[in-house]
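Consider this record:
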Amino acid sequence: MGVGRAGQRAEDLINELGITAPNEIDIEAIAFDRGVHVSYEVLHGCEATLVGYGDKAIATINPSSSRGRERFSIGHEIGHWQMHRGKSFKCRSDDIVLNYSSNNDYEKEADEFAAHLLMPTRIFQSAIRASGQPGLNDLKKIADDFEVSLQAISIRLAQLDSLPVIVACYSKRGREWYSRANHIPWRWTPKTTLDRDSFAYDVLHNGQTHTRPRKQPADAWFEQDDADQYELLEQAIPSANGQVLVMLYLSDSEMCEEAYTQSSRSRY
């Protein structure tokens, strides 16, 4: 998957600073290097603010029990400073998923910048390759190394487009968000509500746990008429706010080999 403008700016900054390992990504030090002073204060109605004047700015971050949230907020505000200088921001986002469906291009760019700043492609790819085909438990360990949330690192894995993976989050209301590797055809979009036959349904409604990805008929996840011809690997674990985080590996290579025209994609 190609890197967007904001992601490339973040990658260039990582290279400029000579960062080669996750433990070298000192987000406060990077902010200081870019002229951004980081302050932690209780905020109401938002998770972070950015106010700049000249070549200096102050990023105020709402304190959180999750260090990953704080770091992503800081990376997000650095992204605004690098990409949208001259504007002030009051940001609701404290993690990659909260603006995932946003129509606000500034927020999307700031999220993309933060994702690439905290999980640079070269360093992140190396960690993923060392895990082979990581499950959610493996991703937890990688998330700890990079000091980011499991949701953020799951989405980053899908967007890396090196594995046939779909990640999604569900609540009892239905699908909250999903992200898929770019090479997976658009028709493989996970259902809007959990199928009773899915492992994720058991996790969400019955409190069951699954420690590794397991085989599952694809029609438990996709509405397509031919989904029953395929199998995939599914893993689901409890997530924040009573939700469930799901990882799907399209282990049947034929699912990713199908070619579709742009017009056929538009139907899904």
Q: What stands out?
A: The chain is about 35% helix and 20% strand. Residues 259-268 have pLDDT under 50 and may be disordered. The first strand starts at residue 36 and ends at 40.
